Amino acid sequence: MKVAVVGATGLVGSEILTVLAERNFPVTALIPVASERSKGKEIEFKGNKYKVVTPAEAIALHPDVALFSAGGETSTEYAPQFAEAGITVVDNSSAWRMDPTKKLVVPEVNGEVLSAADKIIANPNCSTIQMVVVLQPLHAKYKIKRVVVSTYQSVTGTGVKAVNQLMDERAGKDGEKAYPYQIDLNVIPHIDVFQDNGYTKEEMKMIKETNKIMGDDSIRVTATTVRIPVMGGHSEAVNIEFENDFDLAEVRQLLGEQEGVIVIDDPANLQYPMPKDAHGKDEVLVGRIRRDESQDKTLNLWVVADNLRKGAATNAVQIAELLLKKGLI
Ligand code: A2P
User: Fold this and answer.
1) What average pLDDT score do residues 239-247 get?
2) Domains, the chain, ranges and CATH?
């Protein structure tokens, strides 16, 4: 496979390179792509060096698949040009996710929707991915009525500039700001831009993308998304109300059997998932599994995953693996 990584110099792009190498994706030629600014820069992949090219140059090299993680504007402009040239695009931005003509895919949840007609495939929002992987087996068994989620999101989700802001603030240095306020020793209840309804775009993504991926608009979702001064992964407190009652032991068993999920739930021994444990892992970690005692048929969970891995790079590479397995690239 000739593989282009668009945004190869960015945080998610470099994680995609790591994941491609780790999972032994059959890369015969790598095409690292970034902006004009990075043209000619060398990127290392599996011991070889590759020169960064621009999106237009990458199209001319005709890769089999292009993994995009270079922001919405780059995707809006270039993904259709790649697709037009017959190159299958897996896009990590929010540009195409809610487009009814594009599939929004988490392989463990709805991988079966992929078909030969799909030339631009959207990778969901990081917070949505880690939640739906956990919701899926529970919905299949007990039918979800409503989900209330609060997130505790890592600065890595904002990109290099945000990591630098946190580190600068921690070192007492002045520097570029990715957030409107100090993030160190603070919590910012604002991710992405505010909408007319008072929710942020990140919150609305969690709501709409969950319905689309799970193929069920009857699931009601409400979200509060929050940035915290943490690296390594996003955490989520998830409250789920079901149509049917559940057995806690069976919930643990279903989650334990779910592909891509690891249950860490042993309060007696202080075992629960944390971002520092999720960091560098492809799996979604789930713990604090307990009944909501204030309401019938309702469950509380704590869900943690590395937002750059399963929330972005790993899911994109898994989509490419699935395309390959189905003979679609
Ligand atoms: P560059 O390094 O040349 O700016 P992050 O979100 O971590 O900041 O990464 C953003 C990624 O998207 C980088 O690899 C960046 O490349 C890339 N990028 C930004 N604008 C463009 C563009 N117009 N064309 C191609 N890649 C772009």
Assistant:
1) 98
2) 2-123+312-325 (3.40.50.720), 127-307 (3.30.360.10)
